[in-house]
Amino acid sequence: MAVALRAQKALRLAAGTPTLAFTRSAFVARKRNYDQPNWLGVGLAFGTSAALWAYLFKQHNDDVMEYERRKREREHKCTGCS
Q1: pTM for the complete prediction?
Q2: Which of these, 26, 25, 4, 6, lies nearest to 14 by C-alpha position?
Q3: CB-CB contact of 19 with 12 (8 Å)
Q4: Whole-angstrom distance between the N-terminal and C-terminal Cα of the chain?
């Protein structure tokens, strides 16, 4: 499979056909209007960032609690419990 893909890529380079990176898309052919920001995109970006940070803090607190619990179990020397 990889050999076939390499051969196809070599043939494409030899033929000089344009790749997608050098073609112009119809979706970006016009200039952007900076007077009207994409508020949906801005909200999604900030919301995703806030959600990831909240998850990071929650996960950190859970990890610290688990560490403290295991540390207490290690220090527990009672022979009657186990």
Answers
A1: 0.52
A2: 6
A3: yes
A4: 57
